[in-house]
Amino acid sequence: MSQTLIHIMTVLGVLLGLLGISAGLIWAERRLLALWQERWGPNRVGPAGLLQPVADILKIFWKEDWVPPLADRPVFVIAPATPNPAGGRIDAKAVRRGPLGRGPGPTLSPAKVGHRTS
Questions:
Q1: What is the pTM of this model?
Q2: Which residue among 17, 25, 66, 108 sits deepest, i.e. has the most Cβ atoms within 10 Å of its Cβ?
Q3: CA angle at residue 105 from 102 to 111, to 5 degrees?
């Protein structure tokens, strides 16, 4: 076999393994939460609820998105996938600094607004 095919099979094997581990952890979490809350756990889908993660995936795919009536639909749908100007995180320094600089053109602000140096 070629190296490319071996790499593709390795990646697929790792992904499938991680998906299986995730499904098992979700099932175990639901079982433990049900035990702690003294109620039945996931037992409606498949034997002992083992198909619950599959049911969750199907539910997510068929779930209807709700958009506020006066919202701009494309912006409302795309906004969660856009990166924020703070570099993928929001921290106190980025909030204090503000997303845009004061110089010519849209740049990230290097200014330390709100800091006293003396």
A1: 0.48
A2: 108
A3: 25
AA identity, residue 94: A
DSSP for 2-45 reads -HHHHHHHHHHHHHHHHHHHHHHHHHHHHHHHHHHTTS--S-SS
Distances (CA, A) of 76 to 48, 60, 71, 81: 39, 18, 7, 10
Half-sphere exposure of 73 (CA within 13 A, CB side): 4
Is residue 88 within 8 A of residue 94, CB to CB? The reply is no
pLDDT, tens only, 54-92:
888 888 888 877 888 888 888 888 877 777 665 555 555
Rounded to whole angstroms, the Cα distance separating 23 from 5 reads 27
